[in-house]
Amino acid sequence: KRCKEPKEERRPWRIWFYDTSKQAIGALFIHFANIFLSDLTEEDPCSLYLINFILDATLGMLLIWLGVKVVSRIVQHKKYTYLVFGEYG
Fold first, then answer.
1. Sign of CA dihedral 1, 25, 29, 31
2. Minimal CA–CA distance to 16: which of 27, 30, 4, 32?
3. The pLDDT of residue 43
4. Of these four, 6, 45, 52, 75, which has the most CB atoms within 10 Å of its CB?
5. From CA 71, how far away is CA 50, in angstroms rounded?
6. Alpha helices, DSSP H, located in 1-89
7. CA separation for the pair 68, 12 (Å, rounded)
8. Which phi and psi angles does 16 have, rounded to 5°?
9. Could you give the CA distance from residue 74 to residue 83 in angstroms, rounded to a whole number?
C-alpha cells in the first residue's frame, strides 16, 4: 500500500513501519486471546473462536471508530494540533 501513495504524501519508512507493526501486534494479541478463550469452553472451540472473531471484527471496529470520532472532536474543541489523527508532521 505504501508504494501506491503519491510520493509527496507518502509517510516516511519509520512511521510506516510503526503503523504496520502496531496493527500486526494487535492482530496477534486478538488471535491468541481468541485461542485462549475458545479453550475455556466445553462446546466446540472452533465455533467459539469464530464468534469471538466476528464480534471483534464488527463490534470491536465500531467501538474503535466511535473512540476515534470522540477523541477527534475533543482534539478539535481543545485545539490540540499535535494530536490530530493521520497528521505525521
1. positive
2. 4
3. 80
4. 52
5. 31
6. 13-39, 45-55, 61-78
7. 23
8. -60, -45
9. 10
pLDDT at res. 31:
86
Between CA 37 and CA 46 the distance in angstroms is 11
- Give the three cell numbers for residue 27: 492482530
Q: How is residue 41 written as a grid cell?
A: 469452553
pLDDT confidence bin for 58, thresholds 50/70/90: very high
CA separation for the pair 11, 9 (Å, rounded)? 6
| Phi, psi (degrees; rounded to nearest 5) at 15 | -65, -40
Query: Is 54 within 8 Å of 60 (Cβ atoms)?
Result: no
Cβ burial, residue 25 (10 Å; 0-12/13-18/19+): exposed
